[in-house]
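DMSO/TMAO reductase YedYZ molybdopterin-dependent catalytic subunit
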Amino acid sequence: MNATHSGTARSAPPGPTCPEFWRSPLRGPWLTSVLGVVLLVGITVLFVTGLLSYAAYNPGLAEVNDKTPDKGWLGFYLFDWPTRPYWLYRLTQGVHVTLGVALVPVLLAKLWSVVPKLFTWPPVHSLGHALERLSLLLLVGGALFEFVTGVFNVQLNYVFPGSFYTLHFYGAWVFIAAFFAHTALKLPTAWRTLRRRGLRAELRTPVSETRPEPADETGLVSPRPDPPTMSRRGALGLVAAGSLMLLGTTAGQSVGGPLRSTALFAPRGQDPGTGPNGFQVNKTLAAAGLSETDIGPDWRLTVRGGGEEVTLTRDQLLDLPRHSVDLPIACVEGWSTTNQRWGGVRLSDLAELVGLGAGPADVLVDSVQRSGSFRTAALRENQVGDPRALLATHVNGAELSADHGYPARIIVPAAPGVLNTKWVTRLTFTEAR
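Structure:
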């Protein structure tokens, strides 16, 4: 037992604050470093794709889309989200959600590997140590918050109070600041550790030859380890198997095709039925608080802009020039459809009805839906002007079902699913800023 462990053990009360409480012979800087490198790469990708997802919601266009008020300089990177390639959001958000779910076992293993550090005794012994403990609290708390809220949003369409976008956005910045600060401090140690103890050699070491790492200043190595019942190769294999299982039971919701039936942990990942309208639905008519009366014969579409207003029945809408496009729907929860054949009227043609067809125009879209998020959404001029952007009335050769947005819904290439507003009742076009 080295002097550090001995002194700590004498002063620490019994229980997890005592180094001898932690007996695993696998804990040490090498295992922690391997898991840390995996998380460094994975979380960096998660952060970047998360920022892209936020940009795709067009928060800079109008307050109606911006669910994260007073973001200030945190929105420095926002840019006009493109409509090409049409599968862009399907790719970035699919990677974000699928990778996030697959990294859960790695995160849990990393927390297990450093759990003795959370119970260091005394809890604080200097100002510098207090700051280090605070950064560790932000790191661990931020990681758990981001992963838990993300998984709950995927599985339950979010159950926490307040806006998911606000909480997840600010939580991500707090976590990533702590994460990169921690990485900057620990990366040199991790690099030295991994160079001294090669990955290939460790993966070839069986249980019978597994030994505790030499005690060092990290305090991760147990002073009284139990005999090993698993090699480090086995521990990493167990974590990898968990990640692969989650990957295999989640990725199909984004990849589609034959893999869609394997998306067992994705509530809207699998095909819900057959027929022209037999594809994923995020929110049904009933879940939106609507009834058949709200979308019945009395439904009207109001188109406003340039000081003009036009009101259309559904039959009049169907008489306008029609176009067809093949586009998927991709949602923030990570699921997406394969390409569906949508039929309807171009948004740019509807802008022309009120005299705004000659130049670029934004549009504010209102749904019949009276409550809930994104019943109103704003689209930018590049989205309105894309010839594939439609007010759709049909899909795959049939009328839209009530759950898919009958009488009419928005379809825009590369846009998040919630911006493809269903049960549209009003379009307000304005000249682009």
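Residues 1-10 have pLDDT under 50 and may be disordered.
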